[in-house]
Amino acid sequence: MLYLHELGLRPEGRYAKSLRGFIVLLTLGCLLGGSIVQAGEFVVGRYAGEFMSLGAGARALAMGGAAVADPVSATAGYYNPSRLAGLEKRQIEFMHAALFDNLYTYDQLAYAQTVSDGYSGALTMLYSRVGNIPLTKLSNPNGGISDENRVLVDRKTSDNELAMLASVGRKTRNGWRVGATAKLLHKSVADESAYGLGFDLGVGRTVARHLEVGMSARNVTTSILAWSTGRTESILPSLVAGAAYQFDLRAVNAHVAIAADLDGHFESRGSADLIDAGVLSIDPRVGIEYLISNTVALRGGMNG
Q: Quick check: helix, strand or coil at residue 124?
C-alpha cells in the first residue's frame, strides 16, 4: 500500500469559490440523478454499497476504521462531514492500495478547505477495481455442456466502482458541529453499468477537554443504484456512533488518541458483523494512535 498523508496549505478566496462551485454542481447532479431510476426490478442490495464501506485514509484504516468522532479533516467528508467545521487550512490526502497480486486496487483522493465564513467543504473520490475477471462461453453455444463442448474463456473484463462525494460542515451556536454529504455513484462490470445517488448526515461536538463524540447517518434517504439491465438496488441506511479521547504525554513529547465506533446496519448481515440482532447488526471498531513529536505515528486497531 502507498499512502500520501495530509498536506496543510493556507486557504485562498479563489480556491474557496472553486470548491464551493464543485460542491453545488455535484449536489445538483445527485438531485437530478433521481431521474435515472427506471421501471423494472427493485430489490434491497444487501452488499450493493459495500465498496463504500472500505474506509479511507491511512490513519483511520490503521486504527480499525474508528474515526467517526475525530477523523483527519481531509477524510471527514467520508466518515463524518460535521468534522469539517473549524477547518483552518487546506488539506489533501491520497491513498492507493494494491491487493491480491494487484488484482484488486483501491484509491482515495480527498481535498478540504474553508468555503466561507463558518463553513468548510470537501471533495472526495473513491475508486475500486477488480481486474482479470474471465467471461466464459461454450465452444458450441447451441449445444449443452459435455466433454466435447467445453467451457472456454471468451474474454476478460473488470469490475469498476466509483463514488464522488461533496461535503460541507459548520459549527452551530450551541457548540454542535453539523454536516452533510451528497454522493454520486457509478459501477460497471462487463457490458452493464449502474448509476446512483445518496446522502449522509453527520453531527459531533467536544463534550470535555479531551473527549470528542460524533455520529453519522449514512444513506439517510436509502441510496439507490439503477442498472442498465432495469434492475434497481437500494442501499439501506446505516448509523455510526463513536467517541475519541486524546491526551498529551509532555514528558516524552507524544500525543495519544483512543477511538471507538459502533457501526450499525438496519438489516441482518449474519456473520458479516460481530453482533447480529435480526433487524439490526453492529460491528464495533477500536483504535489507538501514539504520535511522537507530531511527526511519526504508531497506530493499531481492530475491526469486528
A: strand
